[in-house]
Amino acid sequence: MHQGDAHTRPMGCSRRACLGAAAAWLLAGGRQAHAGGQQQEPLADAMRTALRAAMGRLAPPEPVFAHTEARMAYLRWLAQMSERLQTRQPDRAVRLEFLQTVWYEAGRAGLELSLVLGLIEVESAFRKHAVSVAGARGYMQVMPFWAHAIGDGDTGKLFHLQTNLRYGCVILRHYLERERGDLFMALGRYNGSRGQSAYPNAVQAARRHWLFLHAESF
To answer: Which of 197, 179, 162 is nearest to 6 (CA)?
Structure first.
């Protein structure tokens, strides 16, 4: 399963500036959920069909590996991320299920793992039942209108772990394609602040914390 970089471009800020943007963003919102500015846009029939197909039937996110080296890399990633996430989610079983699902859904959508984890940190601070003032729900703060646009209309499922991550990853991939690979603009569209720098820079800064350090030993 491909875990390489999503199509991105530089975010236009130094490490210090990005970290400052992230701190300001998070301090401004505290523990509030941030999404909810996504605009419901008309979808062409072909696009709606493609997005519904991308949602697909949920299957258990069981990792499948072509060779032993890939399996070992996954286990190293899982251990590394689990350690970093421990203070936010003390329950090991819940933590591992979350990370395994992120790994599966990010790979399925062709998104970088650190990008998805950084977005979740900014959006919901890793809170499964987070709700924004606009009604966006769950880890990736999915707006309820998406359940009607490309799902089965059941907004209650947006709090289900895999369903929420499936929606969030499919939507972000959709925005990346709409913006022709421009991550800065796609993240702005995801947040409803297209063209503004605060949110993309906050996600970019959070993303650095979730980079997989391949040389780290366990």
So the answer is: 179
**In this structure, are residues 191 and 34 in contact, taking their beta carbons and an 8 Å threshold?**
yes
Which region among 6-10, 48-52, 83-87, 115-119 has the lowest average model confidence (pLDDT)? 6-10
Task: Report the pLDDT averaged over residues 208-215.
Answer: 88
- Which CATH topology does 15-56+77-209 take? Lysozyme (1.10.530)
Diameter of the chain measured on Cα atoms: 49
Q: State the pLDDT at residue 31.
A: 45
For residues 30 and 28, what is the distance between their CA atoms, to the nearest angstrom?
A: 6
In total, the chain counts a number of residues equal to 218
C-alpha to C-alpha distance for 3 and 17, rounded to whole angstroms: 27
Residue 5 CA to residue 161 CA, distance in Å, equals: 23
Asked whether residue 24 carries a pLDDT value surpassing 70, the answer given is: no
With a cut of 70, say whether residue 35 has pLDDT above it.
Answer: no
Calpha distance 158→130 (Å, rounded) = 11
